[in-house]
Amino acid sequence: MNLLEIKDLTIRFDTEAGSVHAVNGVSLSIEQGETLGLVGETGAGKTTTALGILRLIPDPGKIVGGSILYKGEDILAKSEKEVLDIRGNEISMIFQDPMTALNPVMTVGAQVLEVIEQHERCTPEEARRKTVSILGKVGIREERVDDYPHQFSGGMKQRVVIAIALACNPKLLLADEPTTALDVTIQAQVMHMINELKKEFSTSMLLITHDLGIVAASCDKVAIMYAGAIVECGTLEDIFDHGAHPYTLGLFGSLPRLDVKVDRLTPIDGLMPDPMDLPQGCAFHPRCPRATDVCRAENPGAAELSPGHQVRCHLASTHPGP
């Protein structure tokens, strides 16, 4: 049984200017111990999907359809108290920006301690020992436990955010671009640390990123997201070696490769569509060099190219990837 299974998740933000179609019928699954990479441009709906799993959609957003099954039970059907017991305990999130994710007037130790006291029955002394231990696992020495966030570098703040997320040994970790705003060397250290801790705690992970290099190094499965919908998903090999959706191919075509000599990279023309005014038919057709009249008129359903490899494209079977 899947640890997490999302079925047809739909999220809207109803504003005075109109309805923002942020997430449009997303379906995903993650097994125990598995890492799923959720890839897409800024504004594709990746973070909103993760926040939906924790029922943390900010106003005026709301989940208007679908189900989120965790261990076979629908999170959307649970009471707020039941969700509080899951949030931070069973399912934790590493938020995108460590600079703003931490409370500036609380010590880093107090912020980890708060999570432990919320979810575990233990004495203050035991909670303190656990706080020191989990911060030690992310490379923060005991003498720094009572320091404040402003006393840490960006990379060290990200380590604190990871410690908070892992404080109660969650079964599922939602990592929202955990290396954003970090330099390349620190990015590698942080991802190595996340992967090692994930193995130690047997944690499953939804890794949200736009960095295909991080996906290749960390993920078992990949889902490509565009305009609030999953346009292709499959194993790492399916996506990297047999990608079929024009958007997937465009992402890889815009990256430099050591094994291919080209004068210029091939960018994807145009911009993401306005989520308040999505185009009719396939949302990618205004940017797709292969678009036909069918693409402009009808939204494609999911076609299975091989077991577990699904793509939403009218032309996928006739124009397979490399």
Describe the structure.
The structure is a single chain. This protein has 322 residues and is of the alpha/beta class. The protein is built from eleven helices and twelve strands. It has helices at residues 46-53, 80-86, 98-101, 108-119, 124-137, 154-166, 184-201, 212-218, 236-242, 246-253, 293-297; strands spanning 4-15, 18-30, 35-39, 61-70, 73-74, 91-94, 172-176, 204-209, 221-226, 229-235, 303-306, 309-311. Strands 6-7-8-3-9-10-12-11 form an eight-stranded mixed β-sheet, sandwiched between helices. The radius of gyration is 21 Å and the shape is globular. It starts with a strand and ends in an 11-residue tail after the last strand. Mean pLDDT is 91; it is low at 318-322.
Outline of this structure?
The chain is an alpha/beta fold.
List the helices and strands and how they pair.
Elements: E1 4-15, E2 18-30, E3 35-39, H1 46-53, E4 61-70, E5 73-74, H2 80-86, E6 91-94, H3 98-101, H4 108-119, H5 124-137, H6 154-166, E7 172-176, H7 184-201, E8 204-209, H8 212-218, E9 221-226, E10 229-235, H9 236-242, H10 246-253, H11 293-297, E11 303-306, E12 309-311
Parallel strand pairs: 3-8, 3-9, 6-7, 7-8
Antiparallel strand pairs: 1-2, 1-4, 4-5, 9-10, 10-12, 11-12
